[in-house]
């Protein structure tokens, strides 16, 4: 930037007349002729040109247009161009405007808007010329009127030719003159003042030095006349106010502006239209404010607002405050706003114009500070600001001494009710916290009994200051609005809680606040729970702002619960930028981080009462007791504390007094609330129980409460991340109605996200949820939604037995886990109330088994004493003790066959078929044989085990369970089912023969199963326990030659708690004690048969445990309608039925020469009597019973698949028209058809003794085994 070089003598011209100033200018510069308004003609044209370039540009500038330069150099000052090529009336040559600037004031011009650049103030008197393009040369007066140095600092209208300027320029710049808005606005300015206006045009950096003569008018109009005459200021010339006639404040102001060279302002305050000095963001300079000070000495002022005037120096602020204190200026001042005026808090030496004066000796300078004047004015009750009601010093850095003095003055003030001290540096001194002094400042402020609004944002406070602030607010009961945003120093190490929780805890008993702003204070979900606990009793709180805190989903849920409480009056909740937040990692030895769940608070807690979050958690548990209607001494169990801890009682304010130190651990349980729920409720009705339980604990927002939530949700449409966080927060602990969900789904683009999370919360059961599903826009959206909701949609609370793998981060999976905990608590309550023997895995009546969290086995605590975490993977097995009622009837044959036909006919995966069976399982009761046929449709593995688990408690003839156990008797299925259903739950009470056991003695339920087995062996014979051996933890093996100790059956505690015992049970038919087995089943399996007579037990044998020769011998003696006993009686003749080995071999060896009759005879002669009769042959009947059932299972499968047409079935079985099927290929053929039962019994019977293949005729003969329950025609249809 270049500056117009003018002699320094022209800048100090206050006491000179215009003639003297012109002469001085002429003498010093030799260029301008100020008196005549024309260039000095004493120089030649060429030298004048060089002098202008030197004085104006300071170096070689870009060459101006020749015509314009010639016009500038014209000695006559003619208003017409000097040559035909000069400017025309239609040209848009810019207008020259002069602005007074200081040295270096425009170094940053590139970063300023044109209006800011043009409005820069000065005290040096130097000028810079700026071009403005919106006014053409045709509207310009002669240069004598525009370039006279007697004009004021920035205004053309303030020159001596202002009246002429008004007559010539202003009429042509009316709004309808076709000019730009900026030019039109300029035309509306008063002749005495120039209003600030801005233009989108950024002026060039170069500086012009002259103006061309006025060309001809536009559109053929005559040219404007040259403005001549004396350069007079209106209020200093003839007919204006003289120096002795300054009777009004406005004239005083104008006189001061003239004396100081300041452009007058059109503020209503200086024009006399208002008693409120509102100059916010006006970029006032010292001169601007100085001239206002002169007029303040004689008027009363109601308000002072200097917000954003950062250029005013300390010296002027001191003068301003001293003037303001004087009467009448301070008589009625009620608002003082010095926001964003940083120099108010700095000191200035009044004997120098600089801040650092260098007065000697050191300390002799007269240091003054605007803040000291403010403090003095607040403390002076006679001549000070005794009527002030609002003080705003935000963003004004203050020193420590000023903080305390100011706060003391505020506390002693008699009318001040609004104090805004944001970002004043309170709390930090030299980079370190100073909580002690800050605490004293807070206490001083609250000595003011009228204080209602306090803003302390952007300062730096610790816990001590926040606690003192909270206590002061509660004690005063007057403050209605508090703002402490961005005030927390840091998060306390190890506590993961912001210091601001000290303030919140003070409000636990209630507070007078109506608005609270705690934005950006490092509050996470720990702090959110403190907010929920502490502000629950603040019934007057209407506005809460917590934006900028990393609350996360858990923290948002706490705020939403607070919003929906009955006592809450919060109508405006702002939580912007709060969706992000992380859960803490669990400490070593813990399986999860403790968090509060309103719907499922049961669990074990270990609390450090020195942490605010743990104290809030303890108080929330006390409040849960109140909401559930139970006593605290029944809910808090197994309390361990250091030091000793006794249960808290509720104080008069409704707050539970909790210690602030010590550690306490306990188990929290709401089982005492079950007594109220259990009234008139069937113990088997799990769905009704969960409905009542959720009704007791869920938060249900009514119309007044849902509106703020909906407003917040709609406000997050632009940010999907916030929408998802909102829905995840609302998906737990809340119960919503269908109309409320419909409002959330009003935007079709988010309907899928809403229902994926909110559908489990919809109250009203399946009907309301079905209505909600209809809100999905397209079938594709429905598919995506149900894929996400698979765990919840297929969960059946009336039959919860099964395996669960749940991602707790998904709301639907978390809902399933919650309901499992509720049902588990219900079953534990029923078990204790009815006196049932505890058969759980750990001996705690918990039905959940094999619980793993984060793929780690959860040994402690148990599932019943574990609070559900919010994230990560939970995997468990649930084994309900729910049994079929006495009135239960198995599915009839027709319906069962239809169901099997549907299952085996569709191209659906095994997993989907299992899920479908789970959904209908509570309404389906089966017999053991029906379950067996169902299992033949599933391969050995997880699907088959899950099917057994689903229907294990739906079997009506539990004494015949060995019928379906024979299908899943593989090592994999047996071990899996015993682990999932429990060693006692899957124990074969009625038919333990051929069972092999492996008891892991560290588990309670497996020790109990061994205890039961030993009791049974005591009744039927200890020798029935075969092959017992104990594997110790060190790897050694105890052969247990003496057998299983008798004491293990007498008392459960006698069994060791380590090692693995392997044993098998064998019992001859004649030694079975049916009554003992039935008694054990009733005691430990919770099963009572419908009748008291002899049970109709169908005895089965696991053919996999029988020697192969015995199986072949039994099958060779049998047919579709006859068994081994009939064949034995036919061949033994008139013998009494007892055959020695030789007679036995002679009777049957002729047709079974390939079999080992020694092994067969040994199997039949289990008692070692040396002979085999009809009673021993009964063992073969059991073998044949199993083989015949295997054949019948296959034939029934073929009947359902092919309508009973064995010929058609053969075409499907025999590949590529083969005439026979080999035995080695037979299992694969059946599996290809979808049959997974035992394949070989059917092949052996069809192929005959010793046969290795079957033909079409052999296959068709299997139709003789068709079950009477298979309805061929109906199934085919």
Radius of gyration in whole Å, from Cα?
Answer: 50 Å
Number of strands: 31
Q: Main β-sheet, in a few words? A: 10 strands, parallel
Give the count of helical stretches.
Answer: 49
Kindly state the mean pLDDT as a whole number?
Answer: 77
Helix content: 25-40%
Overall shape: elongated
Low-confidence stretches: 1-14, 22-41, 55-220, 226-244, 352-365, 491-495, 1269-1277
Structural class based on helices, strands and sheet pairing: alpha/beta
Distance between the termini: 100 Å
Strand content: 5-15%
Order of strands across the main sheet: 5-6-7-10-11-14-15-16-17-18
Description:
The structure is a single chain. With 1277 residues, this protein is of the alpha/beta class. The longest helix is centred in the last third of the chain and has 29 residues, at 1174-1202. The N and C termini lie far apart (100 Å). The model is unreliable at 1-14, 22-41, 55-220, 226-244, 352-365, 491-495 and 1269-1277 (pLDDT under 50).
For the structure shown, list the relevant keywords.
alpha/beta, 10-stranded parallel β-sheet, 37% helix, elongated
Helix-strand layout with pairing:
Elements: H1 18-29, E1 32-33, E2 38-39, H2 45-57, H3 66-72, E3 95-100, H4 114-118, E4 127-132, H5 143-146, H6 162-168, H7 181-187, H8 249-260, H9 268-271, E5 276-278, H10 286-296, E6 303-305, H11 314-325, E7 335-337, E8 348-349, E9 367-368, H12 370-379, E10 390-392, H13 400-412, E11 418-420, E12 428-429, E13 432-433, H14 435-445, E14 453-455, H15 463-476, E15 481-483, H16 501-505, E16 515-517, H17 525-534, E17 543-545, H18 552-563, E18 572-574, E19 603-608, H19 612-628, H20 632-635, E20 636-642, E21 663-668, H21 674-677, H22 686-697, H23 703-715, H24 720-730, H25 738-744, H26 751-758, H27 765-773, H28 779-788, H29 790-793, E22 802-807, H30 811-834, E23 848-853, E24 856-857, E25 873-878, H31 893-905, H32 910-920, H33 928-935, H34 942-951, H35 962-965, H36 971-981, E26 995-1000, H37 1004-1020, E27 1025-1031, E28 1037-1038, H38 1047-1050, E29 1060-1065, H39 1074-1084, H40 1108-1116, H41 1124-1132, H42 1141-1148, H43 1157-1164, H44 1174-1202, H45 1206-1213, E30 1220-1222, H46 1226-1233, H47 1240-1247, E31 1253-1255, H48 1256-1260, H49 1272-1276
Parallel strand pairs: 5-6, 6-7, 7-10, 10-11, 11-14, 14-15, 15-16, 16-17, 17-18
Antiparallel strand pairs: 1-2, 3-4, 8-9, 12-13, 19-21, 20-21, 22-25, 23-24, 23-25, 26-29, 27-28, 27-29, 30-31
Helix pairs in contact: 8-10, 10-11, 11-12, 12-13, 13-14, 14-15, 17-18, 17-19, 18-24, 22-30, 24-26, 26-28, 32-34, 34-36, 40-44, 41-44
